[in-house]
Amino acid sequence: MIKLGMYGSYFGKDDPKTLPYVEDVIDFAYELKLDVVDFRADVGFRSQDLDYLRAIKIKCLKAGLPIGYLATGGHFVGTEDELQEKMVRCKADLDTAVFLGAPMVRSFCGPTPETDEGQAREVECFQELCDAAAEKGIIVGVQNHPCTGDGILQLLRETDRENFTFILDTGQWVGSPSRTQGVPDPDIDTYEFMEQTAAYASYVRAKVYKVDSGREEWLDYERIVKILKAANFNGCMSITFEGKDVNECDDKETFRRAAKYLRELLAA
Questions:
Q1: What would you report as the CA-atom Rg of the chain, rounded to the nearest whole angstrom?
Q2: Domain spanning 3-267: which CATH class is it, in words?
Q3: Which residue ranges in the chain fall short of pLDDT 70?
Q4: CA–CA separation, 81 and 90 (whole Å)
Q5: What's the Cα-to-Cα distance from 244 to each of 12, 24, 181, 241, rounded to whole Å?
Q6: HSE of 72 in the Cβ direction (CA atoms, 13 Å)?
């Protein structure tokens, strides 16, 4: 059964934020009776103190909300100094994920580098991160942010690590309407990218942009859910809200409507 969760970092419109800290996200996910929560390492945590992180772990446990993943950085392109800086951050977040009990860290890839050298260096970085994660017993999930279906498949194949998996982001492909304010690129079929890669997905980031009407208007979730079910996906769809200044309703109501809408689709 596909589970439904929420990502505790989003680009909403409420000012001040109605869900500023991970504690607020946990409480709200419990209110919505979701199955899982996901966090971003550098957003929403009041501290990296171990006593505080332990309290967050206990709070999740008492709420019956496992942590699906902890989002770290990635996008391994740039100078060697930049790559090393990114790697230091990612490896530090591995320790936080392990302490919290998250089985996976999310790292995003960005567009496929244009040069063979750039592609090879990107793969080496993901291999290094996977090797460090394997020593700690956890997984690295790469998110298409943004990429193409071919690009993701190539990266999975060339990285070639048992603990390297795919997090399918429904709204951050090359050509996605999220990148053009709801207007799809007529020359790029992002649903074809999802069909290419769904069989490799261990997790789904279910992007939500405009859902005032009670259904997501920028993405065709009826089609997306069919793609996932056809691929026998049995993981978690994590609602990720990026609809800043698009919805009339507030951020919490956006999540409520998205959760209701996606639950109905998953149950159909």
A1: 18
A2: alpha beta
A3: none
A4: 14
A5: 5, 19, 11, 8
A6: 29
Amino acid letter, 236: C
pLDDT digits (tens, 9 = 90+) for 229-249: 999 999 999 999 987 778 888
CA dist 14 and 232 (Å) reads 37
The DSSP code sequence of 147-173 is --HHHHHHHHHHH--TTEEEEEETT-S
The pLDDT of residue 9: 79
CA atoms within 13 A on the CB side of 3: 18
- Report the distance separating Cα 207 and Cα 238, nearest Å: 8
pLDDT tens column, 121-143 = 999 999 999 999 999 999 999 99
**Do 58 and 25 meet the contact criterion of CB atoms below 8 Å apart?**
no
Here the tokens at position 226 are 């069919």
- Quick check: 228 and 206 in contact, CB under 8 A? no
Rounded distance, CA 111 to CA 89, Å? 20
In the chain, what are the domain boundaries? 3-267
CB 63 within 8 A of CB 28: no
pTM: 0.96
115: left (phi over 0), alpha (psi -120 to 50) or beta: beta
Q: Chain centroid to CA 107: how far?
A: 9
Of 144, 148, 252, nearest to 208 by C-alpha is 252
